[in-house]
Amino acid sequence: MEKATVFFDIDGTLLDENKELPVSTKESIKQLQADGHDVAIATGRAPYFFKELREELQIDSYICFNGQYVVYKGEVIYQDTLNPTTFSRFERYATSVNHPLIFMSAEKYTANHAEHPYILESIHSLKLDLPSYNPNYYEQTNLHQALLFCKPTEEEQYRERFPDFKFVRWHPLSVDVLPANGSKALGISKFIAHAGIDLKDVYAFGDQLNDLEMLSYVEHGVAMGNAPQEVQAQARYITKHVNEDGIKHGLSLVGLL
Fold first, then answer.
1. Which Pfam families match (predicted)?
2. Contacts by 76-81 with C-beta closer than 8 Å and gap 24+?
3. Are 135 and 112 in contact (CB under 8 A)?
4. In the Cβ-directed half-sphere of 220, how many Cα atoms lie within 13 Å?
5. Domain range summary for the chain, segments of one domain joined by +
6. pTM (2 d.p.)
7. From start to end of 54-164, where are the E strands?
C-alpha cells in the first residue's frame, strides 16, 4: 500500500466525550506509525492545548487554530492572522453588546472578561485551564483565532457586520472566529504542498462543523459516528461512535489497518 498521511481532529475524534484517549485509538495510531504512515493532527485548538497529547502519540506535525497555524515535523510552515484593524472594530462591537471574547496567539490565550459564565462553561467542557485576564492582548500581538461567546440566535449579526471573518460554532455558547478563507482544508493544502504529498494519499477523520471543508477536500474523508448529519454528508466514509472504537473501525474501513 502507498504511504498515507492521516489527519485526526481531537475533540470527539481522538478524544472521547470524557476528553480521554481510548486505548484502541492509541494502539491504532501506533500501528499506523509502525506501518510507515504519517500521522498528523488537525484541530481548532491552540498548540498549547494539546502538547501532552502530541507527546503521548509521538506526533510532531499538526494543523491548529482551524488551519491558521501549520507545523510540519516540528517546523512552522504556514500561519495566518486575524486582520488587526477589522478585529479592533469587532472587539468594540462585541463588547458593546456584552459578548465576551478570548484572544488566541501562538503563545497564549487571554480573555477580556474575568469570569463570564459562558466562558466558564465552554472552556470547562474542554477540560482546559481558564484564560488569564488581559482585555488589551489583541492590541499587543497577532491573533490566529478568537473565541466569541454568544448564543446561536445572536450569531448572525456578526456574519452580516464582519464578512472578513468566518464564524464556526463549536459549543452552544461559543464560536471560533477565523479569517474568512480560514479552514482545516486550507491548512492541509499548505501542508501537503510543502511535503510533496499527493491528495489521493490523504485521509482525514473529524466530527464537527469545523471539519466540513476538511472532510470534503481530502480524498478519503471519514466522519465519526457521533458527528451530526451535516458533517457525515461531507464524508466519503462514516465510522462508529468515538466511544465505540470509532478510530480503529474507521482505519480498518479505509484499509489502513
1. Hydrolase_3 (PF08282)
2. 77/190, 77/191, 77/194, 78/187, 78/190, 78/191, 78/194, 79/106, 79/144, 80/144, 80/179, 80/182, 81/142, 81/143, 81/144, 81/179
3. yes
4. 19
5. 5-79+182-253, 84-179
6. 0.96
7. 62-64, 69-72, 75-79, 101-104, 109-111, 132-133, 145-149
Positions marked catalytic: 9
Cell 484499509 sits on residue: 255
Residue 229's SS3 state is helix
CA 79 – CA 76 distance, rounded (Å): 8
DSSP lists the bridge partners of residue 104 as 109, 145
Per DSSP (E only), the strands in the chain are 5-8, 38-42, 62-64, 69-72, 75-79, 101-104, 109-111, 132-133, 145-149, 165-171, 174-179, 202-206, 220-223, 237-238
Residue pointed to by grid coordinates 464537527: 208
CA distance 62 to 4: 15
Architecture of domain 5-79+182-253: 3-Layer(aba) Sandwich (3.40)
Q: What are 13-27's pLDDT values in tens digits?
A: 999 999 999 999 999
* E runs forming strands in 87-158: 101-104, 109-111, 132-133, 145-149
pLDDT, tens only, 194-241:
999 999 999 999 999 999 999 999 999 999 999 999 999 999 999 999
Burial classification of residue 85, based on how many CB atoms lie within 10 Å of its CB (0-12 exposed, 13-18 middle, 19 or more buried): exposed
